[in-house]
Here is the input.
Amino acid sequence: MNFPVNRPRRLRKNEKFRGLVEETYLSPKHLVYPLFVKEMAEKKIPIPSMPDMFQFSIEGLLKEIEEIVSLSIPAILLFGIPDHKDEMGSGAYDENGIIQKATMRIKKLFGDDILVFTDVCMCEYTSHGHCGVIKNGEVDNDETLKLLARTALSHVRAGADLVAPSDMMDGRVKAIRESLDISGFSTIPIMSYAAKYASCLYSPFRDAAESTPRFGDRKSYQMDPPNQREALREIHMDIEEGADIIMVKPALFYLDVVTLARQSFNLPLAAYSVSGEYTMIKLAAQKGIIDYKRAVIEATTAIRRAGADILITYFARDLGKWAQENSL
Ligand code: PBG
Ligand code: ZN
Here is the structure.
């Protein structure tokens, strides 16, 4: 063969060449670790649908965060499980609610060593398990906005560094922004679950957070999986309302949406690799069908390659460990 051939293999021949041309990086500094905190005596309880994940008591949570800090992971995303649920989800905005108490303890102990992000939603706190209040058999958008704004404010008063509304009510970013600003918290950012789809991949989470709806489903507020252009409209609205970071959720089944969001907007973009993505990989690895570490790194690299800046993932702890051993 004496004619020139294009040979991409020249730059794949060893690790050094591959390193020089590597386009996508994984680092703990992009990671957010979701954690579940519950009002209870035991330190932690395993979550059956999410191997190696736990519901933590506040005491247990503080210990876990110590480790997260030591792995250079900058932020946690907190989900609360109250000991009491009611129609109006009053535990969500109770000054002495589980998230409020946990956040106060964390900030007191760790200060600026960890960013506390809080999920703002009603579903863990309502007796019916929906993400808003029910009126005439339906989730009432505008009544819910008032409670979400109250919830976000109570989290920030307790010391939250950022609030992340996941309810998918229309107008919630504006409602939360206004309530924070009026109360003197204009410097606290909002990360909105802007394009959140009605996905089958949340079911392990709903076990973990005890938030499965008692009737119906979430399709009247979360997005329909076939839609892509609608995601752009949702994201656009949240930006107009004042979101600081936008999010696509889930991640792996929606990488097209991640890429499109990256190309269409210039705000920081987060992708939430959800509980179902986690458990699929965990179970396949436990069965010896795929290699755990390779699968986790490949999946998380794919989400970054698609365009996400920030990665919210239950794999954050393992990724942090691998980074610490220089094997990421
Ligand atoms: C609450 C909420 C959910 C998730 C994050 N916030 C569940 C849902 O909408 O039913 C899912 C996270 C996951 O599956 O890891 N609104
Ligand atoms: Zn919810």
